[in-house]
Amino acid sequence: MSGNRKLIIPKKFRKYRALLKQYGVGTCLFRFYYVLSGKLGILKLKFPPWRWEQKPLEYWGGKEFLDGVTDYKDFRNKANRRFFFPPGKPPRVNSEWHKNAIEEADKILAGNIKYFFKTEYELGMPFDWFYNPFTQYRQSVLKHWSETETFDSERGDIKFIWEPARFGWAYTLARAYAATGDDKYAQTFWILWESFIAANPPQIGPNWKCGQEISIRSLACIFALYVFWNSPCTTVERVKKMSVFLAASAERIYKNINYARSTQSNHGIGEAVGLYTIGVLFPEFKEAGRWKKIALDILNYDAMHKNAADGSYIQHSMNYHRFMLQVYLWVFLLADINGESFPEKIKSRIKSSVDFLYQLQDPATGRVPNYGSNDGSLIVPLNNCDYLDYRPVIGSLHYYFNKNLLYENGPFQEDIFWFWGLNSVAAPRAFIERKSTAFDDGGYFVLRGRDSWAMIRCHTYKTRPAHADMLHFDLWWKGLNILRDSGSYLYFDKDGWHLPFPLTAAHNTVMVSDKEQMVKGPHFMWLSLPRARFIGSFVKDGVEFWQGEHYAYSDLPSHITCRRSICRADDNLWIVVDDILGKGQEKILLYWNLPDIRYSLEGNLINLHTHEGQVLIAVHCFYGDVPARVVKGQQENKCLGWNSLYYGQKTASPVFSLSAFGRLPVRFVTFISPGGNGDIEKSGPGCVKFIARGKNSTLQVQCNSTSVGNNLGLSIKSGNVVAEL
């Protein structure tokens, strides 16, 4: 063999190099062994099924507990373990806020619940725990949880089985009971819980498959137990059975928690919060100390290693970021009121994560970009706010750290009342400015004007990408998400509708040669980790400027670099310049995902007719005349033109796209004028002019293509302001 021959690694093996980089060799070996253990029946031997009566309360409490306790409910009354409020004494809050809870609770009494806090389905009373209302399929054969498939084409997405089993509806019943004192809500909880344990014996069926689901369910049951404590429906026998249920749940989590940690996601803390809570509140269990210790180790470790110093989170998802914050709010409070405490460095890291989310929040709606995986998780729902409103968790954690109120009075403060009591309403109001911010560790960048703001993603992925979204640009104006992310829809759908949502075309960015920016692997895995570089940002002559680039297409023969430059000129105009640099010829596609509102298209100019006024979007390609098209609700190819704000729901929404094929470099310039109007015109060879007319000003922008790859060649004029970029 010649000495200068290059070793060629087969492509199928090169893909797995990205998995090793994301998870590490040890974790990959563990995951392989874990899957093999399930197939060989080892997990079934490790977690043998049993019946509830086989392990009574005395089994979990040990000999000392058996000898000393005659009335377990009385014992619990006297126990020196504190919850957010005394047993049976939940806070009574604003009756207007509780009105919605009572209406929702009455629907639960009739067997109707909301899935993922949006879509209502009927499950009967008591619930049918194995019915998927989305596919109308009932899973009738119950196997050991290790033999239950997560992705089943007949049953459909397992999250539709898990959702009612999370017991999120228990918080609604608890809120209604706190408002009215009506025992029908307590009785309904106990009827449903007893139905659940009868249908789900330990280790059997899909509801024992995921430790995080078990943990979330445990939190809801503990919350309901404390709210309904003084109801005559909460009998000594039910309290004893509930304690057995919680102990069995903790044991299942504890013995399998290494799998949760191997996912390098929120599953570690999602399971640890349940272990910690049961360990703290039920110290009479003989394993409580072990449960609490491992939970603390995970919570402390993950806070420092999965939350970056700038506040960003490992999972690249706003929804999972909120999930993580709810976990830490719960455990911080529970520790404090029981005389324990988390280290200050842990609290400081979580505080940074709160500040991060606040800076990415829309001030008018409380929403954040619909970015990354969005699976409908909201583990402690204690208010009437829409699922998309992030003020409850941000406001609660702000109150925890600062003891003042971040937002004005509203239903998003109900969480604070539940956790701290009614006196918290007297706290002073704080004001924290939202401003342009660079979160370099996580690759999130925020540009803010008076009425409009934007988020940009520019990140070199090292762990678990969520979507193929390099240089995604999310734009908001007066509470409207003008340029949006398409969301997640579902994690599994037998017809494949879930497949396009994480892909490049579902984001506001550029695609080259019909190739995805990242190589999609099975389920949640990605088999490539693109690199990116933040070049810089500054404010000059009243114009805010940002620039970055990525190398997802550098392996093409043309060795492409995609560079995006963004300018904000006051609030009248945003300018996005996309330079596709390289050699040779390529097909270039530019996608702008728009909200589902009325629009009109004329050439390469689209007008969005919003209730706040018109938003004009005009695109010019310097390669030549490139026709634009709008696709809405396409059901073929890549299913373009869909938007999913809530898990399991999709709506047809327009996508404004342009396609060019030519010799590189190619430049696209997009002008976005919120609340005004404008004209685009060629002003010479390789030069284009855009005039934006707002209410009080006229802004002229001229851009040329002679300097592609070197500088922007932008000239911006507004009154006496002249900016050259």
Question: What key attributes describe this structure?
Answer:
single chain; 725 residues; alpha+beta; 5-stranded antiparallel beta sheet; 30 strands; 32% helix; disordered N terminus
Structural summary, described in words:
- By secondary structure, the chain is an alpha+beta fold.
- 32% of the residues lie in helices and 23% in strands.
- The protein contains 18 helices and 30 strands.
- The strands form eight sheets. The chain has an eight-stranded antiparallel β-sheet with strand order 13-14-15-16-25-20-19-18, with no helix packed on it. Strands 7-8-9-10-11 form a five-stranded antiparallel β-sheet, with no helix packed on it.
- A hairpin with a 2-residue loop joins β19 and β20 (613-621).
- α1 crosses α2 and α8 (169-180) runs parallel beside α10.
- 48% of the residues are buried.
Give the helices and strands, then pairings.
Layout: H1 11-23, H2 25-40, H3 42-46, H4 57-68, H5 72-78, H6 95-109, E1 112-115, E2 119-122, E3 131-132, E4 137-138, E5 151-152, E6 156-157, H7 159-165, H8 169-180, H9 183-199, H10 211-227, H11 236-255, H12 257-262, H13 267-281, H14 288-305, H15 318-337, H16 344-359, H17 391-402, H18 414-420, E7 437-439, E8 444-448, E9 452-457, E10 473-477, E11 480-483, E12 510-512, E13 532-540, E14 543-550, E15 561-569, E16 573-581, E17 585-593, E18 599-602, E19 605-610, E20 613-621, E21 628-632, E22 642-643, E23 651-652, E24 654-663, E25 666-674, E26 677-684, E27 687-693, E28 698-704, E29 714-718, E30 721-724
Helix pairs in contact: 1-2, 6-8, 8-9, 8-10, 10-11, 10-13, 11-13, 13-14, 13-15, 15-16, 15-17, 16-17
